[in-house]
Amino acid sequence: MSPTLAITGSNLCGDAAFSAALDLDGEITVSSVPPGQRGDLARLCQELCASRGVRPAALQRLVVDVGPGSYTGLRVAVTFARFLQQFGPLEVEGVCSLAVLARHACLDHDVPGHLDVVRTLLDARRGRLHTAVHEVSAACVREREPANAAAVDEVLSRCGDAERLVAPAAFARTLREQRGLECLEVGGMDASALLAQGLPRFAASVTDLEPRYLMASYAED
Questions:
Q1: How confident is the model at residue 1 (pLDDT cuts 50, 70, 90)?
Q2: What pLDDT digit, counting tens, does each position of 26-66 carry?
Q3: How many CA atoms lie within 13 A of 220 on its CB side?
Q4: Residues 6 or more apart in contact with residue 88 via CB below 8 angstroms
Q5: Closest CA to 45 of 37, 34, 36, 33
């Protein structure tokens, strides 16, 4: 199996500014920047590859989280992915951070035949939420409502009774305290989550690999 590298800078759950995961023959090794530190994504990846005896030039597949999430983290991760694309036949795939969050939240319910309908919620600032709805099963994560940003009341009015509400732990507590909304609190998410089975990843060229920022044009749509 060709080595696959996954990188994330969205930092949805506040665990690490950057995280990288290397999948080599089905064995995944993860490295993350210590909490509270900015870190260096390039060095993180270099040291991770060296720890497994993998030359960066040997990488043939890269998975990157395109957000929404941290403005700086997303820009750095996407720019790093674009840089690597210039130096060899590297297959790059993007994945929405809300799809990753939904999948990560359902790992304990990963049994054949079980289906979760998950609405992810993320603070988009200025009185708005990022949200998306995914159907999550043991084999597949399927988008039911695409990622979008809207006013808090509008998003909450869309929440269906059958939907499982999911948010990063700190924001879930805020929603409970301020809105009386019960959400599953999610934490401990690193770059290995980008390699989970069935995520809706998409092929991304240099020209169409764009991050979804919390407070940029994506949030205005």
A1: low
A2: 999 999 999 889 899 999 999 999 999 999 888 989 999 99
A3: 3
A4: 57, 59
A5: 33
3-state secondary structure of 152: helix
- In terms of DSSP bridges, do strands 202-203 and 91-95 run parallel, antiparallel, or are they unpaired? antiparallel
Which residues is 69 bridged to in the sheet?
A: 213
Cα(144)–Cα(60) distance, integer angstroms: 31
Greatest CA separation found in the chain? 51
Which token pair is 31?
Answer: 């490295």
Whether 206 contacts 82, CB under 8 Å: yes
Burial of 197 (C-beta count, 10 Å sphere; 0-12/13-18/19+): exposed
- pTM, whole model, 2 decimals? 0.91
**Cα distance between residue 218 and residue 210, in whole Å:** 10
Tokens of 109: 């319910």
Rounded CA-CA distance 182/148 in Å is 21
Specify whether the backbone of 162 is left (phi greater than 0), alpha (psi in -120 to 50) or beta. Answer: alpha
C-alpha distances (whole Å) from 110 to each of 69, 138, 139, 190 are: 26, 5, 8, 18
Looking at the chain, how many residues does it have? Answer: 221
β-pairing, 19-24 vs 4-8, is antiparallel
For 93, the enclosing helix (H) or strand (E) is strand 91-95
What tokens appear for 69 in the block?
A: 């999430």
Please return the burial class of 81, using the count of CB atoms within 10 Å of its CB with bins 0-12, 13-18 and 19+.
buried
